[in-house]
Write a structure and sequence with these properties.
With 547 residues, this protein is of the alpha/beta class. Helices cover 35% and strands 21% of the residues. The protein has an 8-stranded mixed β-sheet with strand order 15-24-23-16-17-22-18-21, sandwiched between helices. α6 runs antiparallel to α10 and α14 (378-387) packs parallel to α17. The longest helix is centred in the middle third of the chain and has 27 residues, at 259-285.
């Protein structure tokens, strides 16, 4: 059985990028975003390039695909038929005949349901409550902004959907626009901007927080009845509408307050809502395992607050593929479950799901540039360069799926001095100086460095640092950090590099501002050419600028 999963029907209204996954006969999973191949940041078009790459990497043709599963719901009563036809017509862009896709009878799964399937599969829980929240999607033919599900032994049952006019994601996105960033791409900036207001007066913070409570939806709790299962009735969220950047409440906030304070109030308000939300869900369901999925849960600091509040009482899992691009994988997993009744992936699976490249391919690309190329012991060379204060690109093995560089497509430097953060921001990433970087920390060092450390391999969960002053390049102004905690068996070569520089390293995704993460050796070499990185290590080769 070969299953092709796709995350979107067409260029997204909300700007999310398109991804593709293939689950083959041997349950091997391959996944990649269209942007990695097209080199267009947040590419939301038909994923013709990604489909072709997936097929090539798995030695398949479209004829070998048994099912096409789409992780995006259809408005069955309104736009469903039109959207399905449009989806089929997009296949022309890939060189396939329209009928080739139509003959496969694409299966369209509901949006939040696929968020739930993805998170549940990666969690390894047998029984769990799944909470999904994002900007919006379609389930049961209706637009919504989230849902709650009960999962037991593979089966997932919806409990409650939240309508679009209760969208926490769109509200936070609109506030992101007010802060001067871009909705669907800049919410992480709003999150990291929030601590910059910590020194503001309590009076100002209280005033703006009260105003922010009128912008965000109010949480009113739930009514729950149990009769062989759990049924939610009534409403979770009340008294709100979709907030636009022209909302008079937001315009007034922008007029009265600095963007630092606006970001702080928005972050605190959303944290407070979710803490109340989860408290009620636990009380009313009695569940001991909770999975969080959907784009809201890319907010690592909010996740940290949830973990701090509930982590010693119940088991929590934050889906690292929480945004819509992860639904390509979710769709393949759902289709596989429908066919076999099984989950084909392991809990906490690695996200190294893309392409790898041979030494011959590396040299073929490198010889097109005027670079110095040296064959080296890659781990020893990386340790030496980093310890000497160099900023390097690290390109090894299969590319990561998702928005994080997790040690196969990463830019690395020392974490122990502020200057390295400044250098990477200014000369490599070319972004705002206040934006923090994440570290990779080997598992054996995590308890020494982090408060209440738990295994967190995906950079999806924030922590307070025990001694942030020791690692200023990867600790934010509030003393928090967003680490990848690395086990040796997950990525042995990268583990040896991090261990060799003291067990912690600054690790940011291998790309320049405005570019997708690099996929091929050529992409990496172009990044070296267009930045002030000192060197890159691709497979067994150290590649440097000729001086």
């Amino acid at each position: 059985m070969n299953i092709l999963g796709i995350s979107h029907l067409e260029p997204s209204t909300f700007g999310h990028y398109t991804s593709v996954a293939i689950l083959d006969d041997d349950t091997n999973l391959f996944a990649i975003s269209e942007e990695r191949v097209s080199r267009i940041k947040n590419d939301g078009g038909y994923p013709s390039n990604a489909i072709q790459l997936c097929l090539n990497q798995n030695n398949l043709r479209l004829d070998n695909i048994d099912n096409i599963a789409v992780g995006f719901g259809l408005e069955k009563q309104h736009m469903g038929q039109k959207m399905e036809a449009k989806f089929c017509s997009y296949a022309k862009d890939s060189g396939y005949k329209k009928t080739a896709i139509e003959r496969k009878n694409p299966i369209f799964y509901d949006h939040q349901y696929i968020h739930a399937r993805t998170g549940y599969a990666l969690s390894g829980f047998k029984k769990a409550l799944i909470i999904c929240l994002d900007g919006g999607g379609v389930d049961n033919g209706e637009p919504n902004s989230g849902g709650m599900f009960l999962a037991d032994n593979g089966e997932i049952q919806p409990i409650k959907y939240f309508p679009m006019y209760h969208s926490l994601g769109l509200t936070y996105g609109a506030i992101t626009e007010i802060c001067g960033f871009t909705m669907t791409d800049g919410e992480g900036k709003t999150m990291t901007l929030a601590p910059m207001a910590e020194n503001e007066s309590e009076e100002n913070k209280d005033k703006i927080y009260q105003r922010m409570c009128k912008v965000f939806p109010n949480f009113k709790g739930t009514d729950v009845k149990s009769n062989g299962g759990v049924t939610f009735i009534g409403k979770f969220l009340h008294d709100t509408t979709i907030v636009s950047v022209n909302d008079t409440r937001l315009l007034l906030l922008k007029k009265l307050y600095h963007k630092n304070l606006i970001a702080w109030a928005a972050q605190k308000r959303m944290e407070d809502i979710l803490i109340d939300f989860v408290t009620t869900a636990i009380e009313q369901t009695g569940m001991k395992n909770i999975v969080f999925s959907g784009g809201i849960f890319l907010n690592m600091i909010m996740n940290m607050k949830i973990q701090q509040k509930f982590g010693d009482k119940i088991n929590l899992f934050f889906n690292p593929l929480a945004s819509d691009h992860g639904n390509a994988i979710g769709a393949t997993l759902e289709q596989y479950y429908q066919e076999t009744g099984k989950n084909p992936i392991s809990p906490y699976m690695s996200l190294y799901l893309g392409s790898s490249y041979s030494n011959e391919e590396v040299l073929s690309s490198a010889n097109r540039f005027n670079f110095k190329i040296t064959k080296v012991n890659k781990t020893d060379s990386a340790i030496d360069l980093i310890e000497r204060g160099k900023v390097i690109g690290w390109f090894q093995g299969r590319s990561e799926f998702g928005p994080r560089g997790l040690g196969n497509r990463s830019i690395l430097s020392l974490a122990t001095e502020q200057k390295y953060k400044d250098v990477v921001n200014e000369k490599v990433k070319k972004r705002e100086a206040w934006r923090p970087f994440c570290p990779t920390i080997i598992e054996e060092k995590s308890e020494e460095m982090l408060v209440n450390s738990i295994y967190a391999p995906y950079m999806i969960l924030g922590f307070e640092m025990k001694n942030p002053e020791l690692y200023p390049a990867v600790s934010h102004v509030d003393g928090t950090t967003r680490p990848q905690i690395l086990k040796k068996d997950v990525n042995p070569d990268f583990y040896e590099v991090v261990k060799g520089v003291g067990g912690i390293v600054l690790n940011t995704s291998f790309n320049l501002a405005g570019d997708p993460i690099v996929e091929t050796p050529h992409d990496a070499l172009m990044t070296l050419k267009n930045s002030e990185m000192d060197a890159i290590i691709i497979n067994d080769f150290l590649i440097e600028q000729n001086k």
